[in-house]
Amino acid sequence: MYVLPPHLANGTRSYAELYSDILTTYRSSPLTSASSVTILVSTNVDALCAARMFSTLLHQDDIIHRIIPTPGYDELMEAAEDAVKNDELHTLIMLNVGGYLDLTARDWFGNAGSRLKIHVIDSIRPIHLANYYEAPDVFVWDDGSVEKAHEFRKSFEITFTAPELESDSEDESDLEDDSDLGSDDDDQVKHSEEDENENLTYVNKDLSSGKRRSMGDGIKPNKRRRTSHDRSDRITRQEYKDHEETVKAYYKGGTTHGQSAAAVMYILATVLERVDNDLLWLAIMGLTYQYTTSRISRAYYDTQQAIYDDEVSRLNPIPPDGALTSINPDDASVRASDELRFMLFRHWTLYDAMLHSSYVASKLGIWKERGRKRLTGLLAKIGFSIGQTQQPYAHMDMDLKRDLVRKLNDIAPEYGLVELSYPSFMRCFGYRSQPLSAADAVEGISALLDAAGGVRIDIEIEGARNGGEWFGGGRAWEANAGRYSGKKEKEDETGESQQTTAADGESVSKVPHITSRGELESKRSGWWIRNFWTAYDALNDIGALREALRLSMALHRAIIRQGTSIIDKQDIKTMAGYRVVVLSQGPDLALFTHPSVLLRLALWLVDALRDHIPVMTNGYKTKRKSLPFVVACLNEVAETYMIVGFTAALEFDDVRKNEFTHTFINARRMCRAELRHTSFDATVVELPQKDLRIFLDALCEGP
């Protein structure tokens, strides 16, 4: 069932009542333990912030709970199996996890019984209709998106309950008795389920173990039979088929994102009258993450940003003279500010910050020598010398920094740079650190989630640019401590860090001691867990977060390096309306086997090329022009390809529904390839290396 936010609830149950139910169940349960309340958290910034916020509220109410990182469906499968066995578990909170699945199906949590209450707080749309309408023990904390699903409710309920079907001929129907009708209905339902499993069901199949699990086919596999034989309950087969098509249309509409999970937590804290700057900052980070990763449009972002702007004014005093620096040693205030679209520019050189900005890349074409000269010319026209733009921003002359935005607004439009800033926020950290912007904080946390461990990355330090341009000797990022150590440290005690470093000092390669897929899966699971907790701790540790910014810089250098190479070598192929890129070699190959990093590369390619390539017409049942990109990266150890699909809008700051979820489904059905999901983003799949060509061919030949 769904529960609306307080301003839409109209007197019905809302977030506060659900939270009160969690507390009541915990306090009244005779089997209370740390595992009684469990929070499953997806490995993205929004879910991480929401988990920190929810944990804070539970701690304030003395509720002991567990937080379990859940990167993908394999981990969710383990959680489902544990839920059936663990009699002490009565409350399961899912943050950006599993909303697309029918959670009451036997494949997932259906066998746990009514003792388990599941709370779904998921920003990904669509939400499975069974969770909305047919799951009394599943509570979807909705943001109002359910209104769009109401038109599909009748068709869903009809297909979900598998009604008795009339014969196509009225005369034949009159001659058949009830037992004959029942037999026909069983055959029809069985045939329908088999057809759905073939055409709609997207399975999560472990390429090594062969485990299969339904991933949300739109119609529940185990349909309930109506027992009534009233004539009014029966429908014709054609009517039933029409209802099935209506339900399919709901899921085929494409993937979008609604209100962030962190925003839902902030609304709950507001109703409970517990908001403070810590919770407000986490909610702002959740929104900023959605915007900077193109999950929401600028229009939606502006609406939410205005709400948080009011909250900032309510909770924080107006700084004297509009200052953006800390006014006392304990200043932890949040302040509104404008954010330039330059990557980490307060912590980098101005030139590098602009060079690594996808917006600047799109307008100037920085992957070409001509584009870099235009960038240098822009900075010179503003009045900055080469030396000034190559020194850290913090060390630049104060007058230059003070006049930067004004000069950019005067000169940059000549170069097509007309949307150089957007409204955002900064937070002060007393005298421990300079204020940090929300965008920079998101970049740091994202870098920790993606690459705090599992790969070796050498980061730049002052006086040793790019591992040796000046004095040589870069620094290797140390995963567990969140700091960097000497470059000569090759391997930790477990042997997980030893990797080959490329000549530029910032590349990554495969882990040398892993020789089998099973060992790789075990290692990868360990990396994700450590990365999650490193990022989780950094949310409240400004020192660790600032160190993570250097890791983020290294990631962006790798993305620019790979993206520039792709464009220079003309590795982007046009296949039946899709732009396809296949990465099979290179020093950064291991890094791009991480789904989120590969998605970052796809986003950079889309933004960079938006104004430079002809528009395409997506081949999947739409005439709307768009820029559909498919990027695949080879995992040499696992002998698989990680694939992401991204449908970009033609206009900057706009978003388009990502229809690759069902595009991939159709391609799998046509070529019988074995697809595997490693994250909850349905547009990210993994398949065997041998199946890549036939899968791409099927993708391009699909409807």
Task: Describe, in plain words, how this protein is organized in 3D.
With 703 residues, the chain is of the alpha/beta class. Helices cover 43% and strands 14% of the residues. The strands form 6 sheets. Strands 1-7-5-4-2-3 form a 6-stranded parallel sheet, sandwiched between helices. Strands 17, 18, 19, 20, 21 and 22 form a 6-stranded mixed sheet that branches. A hairpin with a 2-residue loop joins β17 (573-575) and β18. α3 runs parallel beside α11 (261-271), α3 (45-60) runs antiparallel to α12 and α12 packs antiparallel against α13 (298-315).
Keywords summarizing the entry:
703 residues, alpha/beta, 6-stranded parallel sheet, 24 helices, 14% strand, globular
By DSSP (H or I, 4+ residues per run), the number of helices equals 24
If you compute it from the alpha carbons, what radius of gyration comes out, rounded to the nearest whole angstrom?
Answer: 26 Å
Computed structural class: alpha/beta
Segments where pLDDT lies below 50 for 5+ residues?
A: 170-212, 216-222, 224-231, 466-472, 479-516, 617-624
Q: What's the pLDDT, averaged over the residues?
A: 80
Alpha carbon gap, first and last residue: 34 Å
- Strand count: 22
Major sheet attributes = 6 strands, parallel
* Proportion in helices: 40-55%
Q: In which order are the strands of the major sheet placed? A: 1-7-5-4-2-3
Quick one: overall form?
globular
Secondary-structure blueprint:
Layout: E1 2-3, H1 6-9, H2 15-28, E2 37-41, H3 45-60, E3 66-69, H4 73-85, E4 91-95, E5 117-121, E6 124-125, H5 129-133, E7 138-141, H6 146-149, H7 153-161, E8 165-166, H8 170-175, H9 178-199, E9 235-236, H10 237-252, E10 256-257, H11 261-271, H12 277-292, H13 298-315, E11 334-340, H14 350-355, H15 358-364, H16 369-382, H17 386-389, H18 398-411, E12 421-427, E13 436-437, H19 438-451, E14 458-459, E15 475-478, E16 483-486, H20 517-538, H21 542-568, E17 573-575, E18 578-583, H22 595-609, E19 616-617, E20 625-635, E21 640-648, H23 660-671, E22 684-688, H24 692-701
Parallel strand pairs: 1-7, 2-3, 2-4, 4-5, 5-7, 8-9, 18-20
Antiparallel strand pairs: 6-10, 11-12, 12-13, 14-15, 15-16, 17-18, 19-20, 20-21, 21-22
